[in-house]
Amino acid sequence: MAAGVEMTPGEFRLIRDLFHRYAGLYFNDDKRYLLERRLAPRLDATGARSFGEYARHLRTGSHGRRELEEAVDRVTVNETYFFREEYQLRAFAEEILPELRAEKEDRVLSLWSAGCASGEEAYTISMLLIEQGGFRDWDVRIVGTDISRRVLRQASQARYRESALRSTTALRRDRFFRRAGKLWEVREDVRAPVAFARLNLVEDEPLELVGDVDVLFCRNVLIYFDAEVRRRVVQSFYDRLAPGGYLLLGHSETLLNLPTEFELVQLRNDTVYRKPGPQRRSRW
Amino acid sequence: MSGLDLRLLRARLAAEDPEDRRRAVIELPGGVRPELLELLVGSLGDDDWRVRKEAAARVSRWGDIEGATLALISVVRDTEEVGRRNAALEALARIGRPAVGPLLGEVSTGGDHRKFLVDALGVIGEGDATPVLTRLLTDNDPNLRVAAAEALRQIGGTGAKAALRGLLAAADLTLRLAALEGLAVLQVEVQVSEIRPSLEEPVLRKAAIRLLGWSRDPVAVPHLVDALRDSRRALHAAATVALATLLRHGDDDEVDEVRRMLGGLGPDARAHVVAVFASSDPEARRAAAAVLGGAGASEFAAAVAEGLADPSIADACLVALSTMGASAVDAVLAAAERVEPDLRADLYDAVAALGQGGDEVDRALGEAARGEDERSAAAALRALGAVGGAGAGERAAAALGDDSLPEVAAAAATALGRLAVRGLAPGAASLLADVGLASPLGEVRAAASLALSELGGDSAADVLAPHLEDPEPYARLAAIRALGTLGGAGHQHLRERLPAEDDAEMAAAIRAALAEAERSDREPDPR
């Protein structure tokens, strides 16, 4: 049994490098114990006797790719909640959405939650659109993507523990959720415009799935990447956004020190990034 | 381009609205014309930082990169304006490698501005600059010497490390300070004897303490414990980080020795480490958690468990709790009820590592094993296998047959095996064979195979042998490994299977299992 099997520093580096190549994730030496603990059950599940053997299997085994997905899922943090970083959501609801409503003549609104984990952010966006009220007869598409199939299954089920509603007011809770035993279930009208898909941000081609995007949320995801992967992912975001489209990052994230064409836009409620576009004048 | 155009561009670059000026910078035509470069370089001194930043970005992509580099060096040499100079340095850093040659030429001349250029070389980080920077360590200008040491730290590499190490005996304390700090950042293993003289210098003490962490030598511990007792926060915080570095990067023997020495940590030193844990600096907090764990300070387990709520230190707290010893188990179980599912699973695995059972632990784990989150429930079952009492087998047996929760069922197989080895699940072998190996889930069959192999016996080998043809590759691999562990009849099954095995991966696994068995036969069991 895998109990007590330790991950040597060499094995840690092997597995870390595999995660980096596959998903752009970077784990420093501090994370060895965490990887050891979270991957130990996979040794038994795959018949590996050591983490070295497990790493070889990830790299060359006939089912290595499938196992790599499972392994990455286990070592990434997927904890999030509804209405996270509210000041930014205010900027989105009170400043960005009215601008898009005024300027988009095709009445198609495309929003992407990249690294959506169990879906709280994508549903929050949908709730804000309902509150805004001006998009009822629009073609609204909200796509949540994540590398983990497990969290995407949870997202599709749309059922959440109480702690996921820690920043949700009672008014919003009653309007957008209903009780499902110990859990809270997102109501159908919120779920309707939201779709989820598995997507590895480091692989370029699947990004085509998302289409041209008006607002891209990628909060607390880039922090897991090293500089080179961050640069590539930010460039792919740039390519995927429509001219004038917005990129919203987590509060501790910045594109400083990254060569990027994004403009920094100072809104009343937050500072966001925008792809330069002909139709809107930039503001500070 | 006509003269009129240039006048227009100048007017736009001088517009009242800074956004208009920034737009003008963006829309300035590209190319190699010197008069356009001059305009762009002029915007490096704009009153508005966003315009300066845009100009720095544009000039760093200029068509004539050599011309741009020389113009930027001139700005740094000739200006007293901080904003303009910083914008020029930012542009030089963005240019990167192509700027290194001209920069090295300029720093070999004279003048106070060389310090700024050396800073830029550090940011660029090209190893080609190392020999020149090493020579500058003996320059007459003390500011330049320190800037060179800091640039070497940023560049890293063998040459830079050697140059910095050579400064540990320098009479110039400012230079020695830069070396101590640089070597710690570059994680250079330095002998305690090389650092010890700097511990005596008050101005160097903090940096010397930090570097002791990279000595990888338990001889450093008494120095660090001394510093932990010091009431000055800067010193005991530095010692905390250094001790955590020793724990993190030492080999097993070194870590065991450090832990043994930390076991005798006095109450004043422990209180200082707890104060560091309560600070707002995540690096210091992570280090404090590691030291409390290394010292087995389970009286602080509840405090460390509070840190699990902070994602920037949660994993460090988890490691600390797992190493605090059996008396931390109550705090771990209490924390598990508060945290999110992924971390909860980690905490139940930590309970297994702590090795402390009891009625209350059984109750908490038993309840968790029935919980909604599959991963946490699985971890609780594994922990029950490791530390659970007589009733744990019943819980595991019930979970083994639940095909709706694959991870939980697989964990139940593992738990049953562990309990049986501990003499607490007498019927485990039959359950594993009849229910576990018959499961429709490959991962449950794999876990059951491995659990059976721990129980031993020729009958187990016969039960496992059909799984050498299991449709699920992982279950086949597990059966191979299990039969290899069993030896005797297990090896016979593997030898018989090998000629018929047409999957190269499985054949290699069988050969490896047999080869390992032969190795084990040759080497006597140390027990």
Written description of the protein model:
- The complex is a heterodimer of chains A (284) and B (527).
- Chain A is an alpha/beta fold and 284 residues long.
- Chain A is 41% helix and 19% strand.
- In chain A, the strands form 2 sheets. In chain A, strands 6-2-1-7-8-10-9 form a 7-stranded mixed β-sheet. Chain A has a 3-stranded antiparallel β-sheet with strand order 3-5-4.
- In chain A, helix 1 runs parallel beside helix 3, helix 3 crosses helix 4 and helix 5 crosses helix 6.
- Helix content of chain B is 71%, strand content 0%.
- Chain B contains 33 helices and no strands.
- The radius of gyration of chain B is 32 Å and the shape is elongated.
- The relative contact order of chain B is 0.03.
- The interface between A and B is large, with 31 and 53 residues.
Q: How would you sum up this structure in a few lines?
A:
In chain A, 41% of the residues lie in helices and 19% in strands. With 284 residues, chain A is of the alpha/beta class. The model of chain A is unreliable at 279-284 (pLDDT under 50).
How far apart the termini of chain B lie comes to 88 Å
Arithmetic mean of pLDDT of chain B: 92
Count of separate DSSP helical elements of chain A: 10
Q: What proportion strand of chain B? A: under 5%
Straight-line distance between termini of chain A: 59 Å
What's the structural blueprint in terms of helices and strands?
The complex is a heterodimer of chains A (284) and B (527).
Chain A lengths: L8 H15 L8 H15 L4 H10 L3 H12 L10 H18 L4 E7 L5 H13 L6 E8 L2 H9 L1 E2 L9 H7 E4 L2 E4 L1 H4 L2 E5 L14 E6 L8 H14 E9 L13 E4 L4 E4 L10
Parallel strand pairs in A: 1-2, 1-7, 2-6, 7-8
Antiparallel strand pairs in A: 3-5, 4-5, 8-10, 9-10
Helix pairs in contact in A: 1-3, 2-4, 3-4, 5-6
Chain B lengths: L2 H11 L4 H10 L6 H10 L5 H12 L4 H14 L3 H14 L1 H11 L6 H11 L5 H7 L5 H14 L1 H9 L7 H13 L6 H8 L5 H8 L8 H9 L3 H17 L2 H11 L4 H11 L4 H13 L6 H6 L7 H10 L5 H8 L4 H14 L4 H11 L4 H14 L4 H9 L5 H16 L6 H9 L5 H14 L2 H7 L8 H14 L2 H9 L6 H19 L5
Helix pairs in contact in B: 1-3, 2-4, 3-4, 3-5, 4-6, 5-6, 5-7, 6-8, 7-8, 8-10, 9-10, 10-11, 10-12, 12-14, 13-14, 14-16, 15-16, 15-18, 16-17, 16-18, 16-19, 18-19, 19-21, 21-23, 22-23, 23-25, 24-25, 25-27, 26-27, 27-28, 27-29, 28-29, 29-31, 30-31, 31-32, 31-33, 32-33
